[in-house]
Structure formats: structure tokens, C-alpha cells
Amino acid sequence: MSQLEVKDSPYAALKLPDFRKLLLGRLFVTLAVQIQGLAVGWQVYELTKSPLVLGCIGLSEALPSLGVALYAGHIADVHDRTKIALIAVFGLFLSMIGLTLGSQFMSGTPLVVLIFSVIAFSGIARGFYGPAVFGIASDVVPRPLLANSAAWNSTSWQGSAMLGPVLGGFLYVGIGGAWTYGIATALLTLSLGIFLTLKNKSQRIINRDVSVIANIKEGLQFVFSNQIILGAMALDLFAVLFGGAVALLPVFSAEIFHYGPQALGFLRAAPPLGAMLTAGILAHLPIKSHAGRIFMSCVAGFGLCIIGFGLSKNYFVSLFFLTLSGMLDCVGVCIRGTIYQLLTPDDMKGRVASVNSMFIGSSNEIGEFESGVAARFMGLVPSVVFGGTMTLLVVLFTAFKAPKLRDLHLQNLYLKETK
């Protein structure tokens, strides 16, 4: 098979053994985290009955993650990324054990305090995990296959993000919170075993003598001087910040639809289901032309779906809007992931990923806090509609302020790779 045929094959990245291991290890981590998210959300809502407290769960994870993000990016660029990922997953493993034991032997306010403390600790672990795993992809995948690997990464992540909440909902009802966290702990154990088999194949020239401040400053200058990368990060930041209604799903499930944890699991799984289906299509039919306009249109469509979800009073109509939002979001994720991988030098992947985690990763959790606060002062439905409307306004603003992103054709990046 010729090099061109390998590059154009939709399964090219999957033929790499280390990439398959990376994919599987990430899948188990995401499954565990999604199960934890479902269980924590429902458990805290049962204990407090407060949308605001639900929003604070995300904030308690986001702040520690933000606090270590830039340093974590520096570490990922000057050390073995596989070892960093292993340590981070072990931190998540310890967090899950804490939730398991706490749910078994505690209740009431002490349990709520423990949950928030453990979530804060896991935020630190996730702050190091993201940049390390993002960098490992470029260590085990040749540059011509990075776009293909981004599509399969998204498919794997969305598949586990879809299955996790559904599984978590049924586990929580069937065996209770403590055993649900125990299952998630077992998944993290499997992930640790897989990451142990990964070998560092990086060709990076590592300069460990450079100061932490100088290294972080270099990464920030790279991101903020690149209109395409900065525009993509900023657009997704505000879309997630204002358009995230995930934190309020327990309230919708209990008070709008009058269902339990199983129904909540399907609500949380709907966006990843749509995204997984879309990611599989994009792996076979990658976007190359008019990528910038498609990206912005999909973010706008995501905002409209959030508005539709907020106004819907029917459980199945709401499932439809959430599924469609996941499909549109996935297109943006794949385009954004391809941009980051192709425009970022290998020795800067960790630092760019850390900035990305500050823009996007933590905005998920901060968006949950924003949703909780907005629901507290505006009401449940108005807060969700407000968030979707703000997403539309952010798209319009970005279209005018970031013309290079708006007019981007990924085909031009592919052509650079062949020269």
C-alpha cells in the first residue's frame, strides 16, 4: 500500500498499535469520569435539592485545574508525557476510591463536603492529564495521520461519554452510589494497565534547562499571536460557557420530566451519541474546504439547540435537541482538534493543550457554575434560553473579529504537510 493510500485511508491511524492503546486507555478514563459525573450530580442533588450547589460542583473542579494548567503544559513539554499521564490517572484513581469509601460510610453534609474536596483534587489530576495525553498523540502518530487520529479520538471520547452516563444511571439505581464509584475505580485500574504498556517514541528535542516562566511565556505568545488557534479557542470557550446546560439536567429530569437517574443518564448520553455518530462519519469524510465557516455555523446551530432544549417540555423532543447539539458540537471539535495538531509544533503541544484546557476544558465546569447561578436568579428555563442566545451572539462577534478562522480551508493545511 502506497503512502498516499495509507494517508487517505479512514482507518490509517487505527493501524498503529500504540495509538490503539492510547485510544483504549482514554476510553476507560472517560467512561470512569462520566460515571462519576452522573453519580455525583444525582447524589448532590438528592442531598441538597439546589441547582446552585450542582453548578458549584463544576467550579470546584475547574479552579484547581486552571491553577495548574500552565505549569502542567510546561511539564508535558519537558518530560515523558506517558509517565505524566500515568501519574494523573493514578490521581483520578485515588479520587474515585475516596468517593467510594465516603459514599459507603458517610451521609448528609459531611458527604457533600467530602465530594467537593475529592472533586477539587481530581481537578488537579485532570489539569495534568489533558496536556500529557494531547501530546502523546503526536508522539505515537505520524504528522500526516494526525487529522485522521483526531477524528478517531473524538469518536472514542464521544462513545465513552455516551455510554458512561447511561451506565452510571442504571448502576446508581441498581447498586447505589458507593458501588457505582467502585465500578469507575475498576475502569481507571484498566486504564493504568494500558498506559503502562505505552512506550515513549517522541522525537522531540527536550531542553530541560529552560526556566518554567520562559517556557510558559513562549507557549502563551504562540497561542495569542495565532489568530486561527486563538479564535477557535475563544469561540468554543464562550459557546461552552453560555451554552452548557449539563449541570441542570438533574433538575430537568426530576422537576420538568418527573423521571429518575435512568432518564438523566439518557439525557446526558444524548449529546455524545450524536457526536459519536458524526465523528465516525467525519473519519470517512473529513472536512477540508470551508472549514472555518462550517465551524462557526455548527457553533451557532449548537446555540439554537440549547434554546430548543430549554423551551421543550417533552422528554423525547429534548433528547432530540441534545442529540443534534452533540452532532453539531462534534464537527467543531474535529475541526478544532485538526487545527491544533497541524498548526502546533510538537515541542509545544503540551503548552498549547494547557491553554486550550483553560479556554475549553475548564469552561465546561465554569459553564456549569454559570448555569447554576443563572438558574438561581433567572429561573431554570430562562437561564438555558439566555445561554443559547449568548452563544449565537458570540458566533457573530467571532466571525467579524477572526477573519482568518472564518475563511479557513483545512485543505491548505494538508497541502503544507505534503510539501
What's the end-to-end separation, in Å?
21 Å
CATH second-level architecture: Up-down Bundle
What fold name goes in the CATH topology slot? Growth Hormone, Chain: A
How many strands appear in the DSSP assignment?
0
The major beta sheet can be summarized as:
none
The helix/strand series, from N terminus to C terminus, equals HHHHHHHHHHHHHHHH
Give the percentage of residues in beta strands. under 5%
Low-confidence stretches: 1-6
- Helical region count? 16
Model description:
The protein has 419 residues and is an all-alpha fold. The protein has one domain: MFS general substrate transporter like domains (Growth Hormone, Chain: A, Up-down Bundle), CATH 1.20.1250. The protein is 84% helix and 0% strand. The chain contains 16 helices and no strands. Residues 1-6 have low confidence and may be disordered.
Give descriptors for this structure.
single chain; 419 residues; globular; Growth Hormone, Chain: A; mainly alpha
Task: Reconstruct the topology from this structure.
Layout: H1 3-8, H2 17-48, H3 51-78, H4 81-105, H5 108-140, H6 146-197, H7 212-224, H8 227-243, H9 249-256, H10 261-284, H11 291-311, H12 315-343, H13 349-378, H14 380-401, H15 403-406, H16 410-418
Short structural description:
The chain has 419 residues and is mostly helical. It has 16 helices and no strands.
